[in-house]
Design brief:
388 residues, mainly alpha, three-stranded antiparallel beta sheet, 48% helix, elongated
Amino acid sequence: MDESRQPDIRIKVNSRRGFGGGNIIHPVAVESSPAVNQSQTPSPLREVKHFKKWFPWLIPSFVVADTALFIITMYVNDCPKNSVSCIATFLKRLSFQPFKENPLLGPTSSTLEKMGALDVSKVMDDHQVWRLITCIWLHGGLFHLLANMLSLLVIGIRLEQEFGFIRIGLLYVISGFGGSLMSALFLQSNISVGASGAVFGLLGAMLSELITNWSIYANKVSALLTLVIIIAINLAVGILPHVDNFAHLGGFASGFLLGFVFLMRPQFGWVSQRYAPAYATVGAKPKYKTYQRVLWLVSLIVLVVGMIVGLVSLLRGVNLNDHCSWCHYMSCVPTSRWSCNTDPVSCMSEQTGNQYTLTCSGSGRNGTYTLDNPNQSKIRGLCSQLCR
């Protein structure tokens, strides 16, 4: 055997990048030392698993927690006791409010408020800032819960497998907070609940992760186009009535910035350098590229400053609609088929024996109801059904 012959050593990097992209092979130039015995030469192809694959347990735990909280919320709601009529009465305390009151198959707004929903007046007047976090674990109905949890499983498990539970958990919670904050700055008349802001944060992080790790993707353009189309479709759904698109936009923006901070990957040149043989001559490669470091710093500053300014503005009672006359169209676009009016309803009531006559304050519509054991919850429910 000719001992002056150089071994051809290549490092095969298992990359899980992209949407269906294949593995990427990076050859490493190696100079053999004459003193090295050929019997010690490594195999011609070495597998390098530098991207650890995590076991996803946190995202499924979030799904279980949200589902459990929804069941508890329905138990507290107790529709048979507090409403005149219910849906799925065989569920007893877990039965749903009437469709006219809650078309998502869920509890009353007062129950959601009791459980920690985002009520802007309570945040501003009573400084209950914790509602910006607790509201992302609650859902307005069964349909709402199913839509968010399916999206969370599809998006979140893949991210947790690649980046681990710590980074994805922080990204989820902070994005949810950012979505709640933007919602509170624009929509101040209704309560708000749901994990959709946090889910959109994961979508935003997927986009920024693609950008900051651009050089290690196999199919860059197709991955970018696919992700942009998915994001555009989901944001477009937010212009329908009764959908809080401001929470979606706030969560997406927060997740997009956090992706540059939490999801930055080392470059392949640095990885190849780490796994090259001891006798190999490989030029020093930086772990991160300059553009990655710049995006990391700028994104962190913008995110921290933006959230501080937004929170201070909210606690001072600022309504951003007063400074932006067209911004409300980002959450709902009125058409001939639906109205974007989401103002809370109220009624005037008159009692004659066990009969109550309710009159909508806005439209003047009225109705008479027989109530044997009336309470405020039943009256509010009837008012909501009458006026919507």
